[in-house]
């Protein structure tokens, strides 16, 4: 109901009286003058039924896809669209064919795309929706994301309040409160592996269904056909309630009364074979990283390191370095900062900044402000987009983003500040057992560092503070092909 209505913003200084003035394009009005301001504005306007407005269908406007489409045609998506190869066109073409067949034959399809960090999953999702809008079926689509920082960075780059439909708003509207049926037949949801499990949804919404079950149940209400595309980041579940992973989608389909078809990479096909028709497609596994555009083996190196296979990591590390992807380690934070500034001195568009685990508590004593208050106040839009001289820019090397604010985004050269929440001792990673609601806090730590270690395009610098708890960790990192600075 709001699409055709004019919105007039007003700044209200609550501690002043008797003021009413226009400052450039901003109207300022004190509380006592507010009725004087809005009275004439409302006298000639059509009346709005407040109850009707509250009960109206949820329909966010405009979407991230609309914003991304403008960028996609005219300029690079900031820190997302960095390449046009590595299998994305083939995957999009296959998905378009599947969606057309679903529309023509009245099918319900769940398509899953997997990929290593930085493989371009978000790009694929945006590209698929963009191309679907110009198809002969003139379908409606939605791009849903639970990744707030990614959306904020795009909003800031556009200088617009354009927003994506938040995944959990969509689920609450149509799955929990059941307010109508979505108009979209094609729904793309990012970070499908991070969907909440039943226990977490029950705690938050008093509904005994997982998010995948709720999404499938929403799609079951769509008339005639539906196409769901889940973008799956491997090993990137980083928060409480996300640990059940992709197996939840199997359980969700098995609970549906409708006939579903699953299209997925071959490595996932066994999971669905006994419950529905499965079509395995190799092109839906994006196994080449675009983010690490020089070295295709960075993801394999990270996996070997975090699994404790140091010998394999050492071999891969040398290979990665030989390909030009730079991996450094230092115990001097100022040295790491100098390196980044000097490296990109003549490249003002390149980005470098401080990243850290949210659970690394010792870092604040070494000048790395990754505490909750500091990171909550951080504005990620300016952090990723502003120029070198802006106090809000990542390149100032003052503020820090954690795994929650860098997942799905990238820097040319991040400085990863390592903490005591992941340490090496006696030839293995020390199990992280801090009290938490999650089922496996250690796995979430490993996943968090997987995210942090895969944010760089040209490489990364690990800063490991001079703390005795980290001495063995520092030594083992030197065995994996990382060079000292």
Quickly list its features.
485 residues, alpha/beta, Rossmann fold, 3 domains, 8-stranded parallel β-sheet, 6-stranded parallel β-sheet, 17 strands, 15% strand, globular
Which descriptor suits the 3D outline? globular
Give the rounded overall mean pLDDT: 81
State the end-to-end CA separation.
59 Å
Q: What's the CATH H-level homologous superfamily of the largest domain? A: P-loop containing nucleotide triphosphate hydrolases
Major β-sheet profile: 8 strands, parallel
Count of spatially separate domains: 3
Rg from C-alpha positions? Answer: 24 Å
Treating each run of at least 4 consecutive H or I residues as one helix, how many helices? Answer: 19
Write down how many β-strands occur, each being a DSSP E stretch of 2 or more residues: 17
- Strand percentage: 5-15%
Q: The CATH topology of the largest domain is what? A: Rossmann fold
Report the structural category: alpha/beta
Can you identify the CATH class of the largest domain? Alpha Beta
Helical content stands at 25-40%
